[in-house]
Amino acid sequence: MPTSPSLAPSPASPPRVVRHRRADLIVALVALALAGWVASGLWRDPNGRAITVNSSDQALFEWLLAFGGHAVTHGDNPLFTYLVNVPDGVNLAVNTSITVYAVVFAPLTYLIGPPATFLVILTLNLAATALAWYWLLSRHLVRSPLAAAVGGLFIGFSPGMVSHANAHLNWTAGWLVPLLIWRTFALRRSRHPLRDGAILGVLVAVAFSIAAEGLFFTALALGVFVAVWALHPARRAEARAVLPTFLRGLGVTAVVAGVLLAYPLWLHFAGPQRFHGTGFDAVIHSEDVVAYGAYPRRSLAGEAGLGTQLAPNPTEENSFFGIPLLLLAVACFVALWRRADAGRRATLWALGVTAAVFTVLSFGPVAKVDGRRVDLPMPFDLLGHLPVVNAALPARLALIVAPVIGVLLAYAVEALRADPPRDRRTRLAWRAGFALALLPLVPTPLLTIEREPIPRFITAGTWREYVSPGGVLTPVPLTLDVYPDGQRWQAYALAHRQGEFAIPSGFFLGPGGPDGRGRIGPTPRPFGALVDQAGRSGLVPIITEGSIQEVRADLRHWRIETVVLADEVHGAKWPVDEEAIRRTVTALLGPPERVDDVWLWRVPQG
What we know:
By secondary structure, the protein is α+β, with helices and mostly antiparallel strands. It is built from 23 helices and twelve strands. Helix content is 53%, strand content 7%. The strands form five sheets. The protein has a four-stranded mixed β-sheet. It has a two-stranded antiparallel sheet with strand order 1-6. Mean pLDDT is 93; it is low at 1-14. Keywords: Membrane, Transmembrane, Transmembrane helix.
């Protein structure tokens, strides 16, 4: 297996550009077909179906698309809003604001609505990630289109990407990573460091505005890879020679990105409603050691009953490569290493160290083996207290391993095609190894459910008769991650140009967690707690005069004008008992009115 194929094509082969164009078209069609297949459950009815395991995040991203487009077209701040979490507001710079998507796709959001726009972006994200990796591999790392296709399609539809397709528009924007890699390495011998540094700076700003956590992970991975590569004896001289040019370009990148992100970064680290750390437990959201050899649920292997419950939820299956793929990756590494020259070994060594570092870091502060915690401190325990790092979920560091495996697969396929083993059994063994490793990981469609319809009270604009312009309306239960209706209603009103109404509470990350850390949603108040108890249990809680006074104080605090109960309430984690909620709110606020298809309580102001 040589390190690279011959530079000269055979006389009978078509020109390389023609071959690439044909391969590009085929890979693009395959990527789009796979992306449509994964999201096919939503394509059946974009406005009527939701992702089963993560309908709350889907509602959040739909709201972000509607709010971002509304903010830009109305001259509002797209990174801070008082429409949610009245009266304190929400700092969207410390949330997954996807500002660039909201702006670019605003015309589509106004045309077809937030749910359909969400689906378009999700599908394009998956396809574009595979295509971007294929482009980087085929144009810069390997000469064989087949090798690039194997690597690109694997990375684009790796278990972690398909898992995060359960509503994460930020993490499925993996197309940003190969672009960042390409522009970073373009700085090594750049003749125009000002231009190339500026291009990378703009790309960094775009990446921050779509997937800030992904940008941070990419920077960490590039830092580890470049450091290991540059310290290798075969590359030290080259690294010293290009270092001045590389640093000049990075300096320009820092200036350009710093100017573009000055306000978002200020909001993130010093603005109102900021917090430190995250609202999620790093131990729970760490990768199980066994998960690397397990199979994901949304795959052919998972459909065959080989899936596991090792992830904290189905959206966080970040490794789940299966033992055959791990063995294949090791075999590829060893075979490539044996035939590589010193320069290629530096690259392989850097890839291997990068994969090993982020595999270990993904285990979090305390290792877990098959669901059981092991009393053994891990490296992340030392790093997890650092600023910025303390806001990351360690399990997601496993996402860095998939591109490393994809590059190894591409290198190996190219080497095998350029110099196939002479022994027929060896050739068959390699083919069988690729088949056994990759076929079980072929993705299956995301699970979807029929979503509760938005009430006619909202879609017909009747709400405007009961809420003053910019006034406060609340559904019951109050809007949270487990009850996303309020933001779904608000997204509909904003995208259909009905005007603005604000809501208390909401699904967002904000201050109020232990030790100054963040939490999901605001600190609970009595009214929300009583309604939540009724909706979950199906029983009306004990209502006292004290309860009524506390609820009145909550309504004054939130400046609520109207309380609304839909006939069908969406519970993201459990069914909701609407009748128990109606009787509870009636006990607190008196008899409701029936308006269109909702129960409504007017709240006297003052």
